[in-house]
């Protein structure tokens, strides 16, 4: 009797053992396996010597990483695949900081207590650490650095917005809650005719100064300390909210969106970048991040219809969407024609 005679069992076994692959990847990162292979193919014996590991054990690890598609492995030497190279520091789209943060207690421990969130509807992060994620990170500099690096890398697909959305008729862009400035930096670099503004909390805006130093020096960009729960500066043709709304409940989202609407001109546009839950039940990434937001922040991912309803409550109309990579989507909104009552 062959395994393919029982596809349901095969599928379930793959699901149940998937965390073992993740553990193997994290252990490989901590040992430095991917970094050692960044310079070219190596034997298991060479890697064991370089990483202070057992040669036979490393050979078995390489065999698994090869089956997972991160390496090519022929029994003698191993080399990185395109996916494996994303776990090295030198790659321009490296996901290594994200992998390191997912291996940190800030991510691991809340997920281990998923049941608490399912029973209570509350983020298990607060049960684990006794504070919200931002309160905890403010008192843990090392984890804050991991988090900041991971968020910058996790936004890589969003930077593709600079090429997928038509900015040719736009003169000025405001990135609201734009973090380290990486998205705005990418947009300004791709479109030299644009001016830009980053609106962020003062301590976060300072971290963006390095990435946006060039546009600021050229007079094309300004850093404006601010809060998206307060009135926003007017004057931009396009406002951007990238991975902001999934942190907040519906009422808070409407407040943020209403502030954007109040700042927008009648012909302005709002771009919302989020993982949108679609009609395809096999599209796992938005669903996984929906639970991730629940256990860590108490937030959620939403469907396009749910975003349309939030936009309508804030005096905005959903006009279309642009698919990005890794489950991200840019929703394009415009004013309904009248500003909502406060």
UniProtKB/TrEMBL annotation:
The keyword S-adenosyl-L-methionine applies. It holds the Pfam family Methyltransf_2. The active site is at residue 246. Residues 111-316 form the O-methyltransferase C-terminal domain. Keywords: Methyltransferase, S-adenosyl-L-methionine, Transferase. CDD domains: AdoMet_MTases (cd02440). GO terms for molecular function: O-methyltransferase activity; protein dimerization activity. Residues 14-89 form the O-methyltransferase dimerisation domain. One of its GO terms (biological process) is methylation. The keyword Methyltransferase applies. This is O-methyltransferase. It comes from Marinactinospora thermotolerans DSM 45154.
């Amino acid at each position: 009797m062959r395994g393919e005679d029982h596809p349901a069992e095969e599928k379930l076994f793959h699901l149940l053992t998937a965390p073992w692959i993740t553990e193997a990847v994290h252990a490989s990162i901590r040992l430095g396996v991917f970094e050692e292979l960044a310079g070219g193919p190596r034997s298991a014996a060479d890697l064991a010597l370089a990483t202070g590991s057992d040669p036979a054990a490393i050979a078995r690890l390489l065999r698994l990483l090869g089956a997972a598609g991160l390496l090519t492995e022929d029994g003698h030497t191993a080399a990185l695949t395109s996916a494996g190279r994303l776990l090295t520091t030198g790659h321009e789209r490296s996901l290594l900081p994200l992998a390191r943060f997912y291996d940190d207690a800030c991510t691991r421990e809340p997920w281990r207590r998923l049941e608490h969130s399912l029973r209570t509807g509350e983020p298990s992060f607060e049960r684990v650490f006794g504070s919200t994620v931002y309160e905890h990170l403010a008192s843990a500099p090392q984890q804050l650095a991991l988090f900041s690096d991971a968020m910058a890398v996790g936004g890589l697909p969003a930077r593709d917005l600079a090429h997928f959305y038509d900015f040719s008729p736009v003169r000025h862009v405001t990135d609201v809650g734009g973090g380290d400035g990486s998205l705005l930096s990418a947009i300004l670099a791709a479109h030299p005719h644009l001016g830009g503004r980053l609106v962020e909390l003062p301590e976060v805006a300072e971290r963006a100064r390095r990435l946006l130093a060039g546009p600021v020096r050229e007079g094309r960009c300004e850093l404006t300390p601010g809060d998206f729960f307060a009135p926003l500066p007017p004057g931009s043709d396009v406002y951007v909210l990238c991975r902001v709304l999934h942190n907040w409940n519906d009422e808070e989202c409407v407040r943020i969106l209403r502030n954007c609407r109040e700042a927008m001109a009648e012909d302005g546009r709002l771009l919302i970048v989020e993982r949108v839950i679609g009609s395809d039940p096999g599209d796992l990434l938005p669903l996984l991040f929906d639970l991730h937001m629940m256990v860590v922040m108490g937030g959620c991912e939403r469907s396009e219809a749910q975003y349309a309803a939030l936009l309508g409550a804030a005096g905005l109309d959903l006009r279309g969407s642009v698919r990005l990579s890794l489950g991200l989507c840019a929703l394009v909104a415009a004013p309904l024609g009248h500003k909502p009552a406060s």
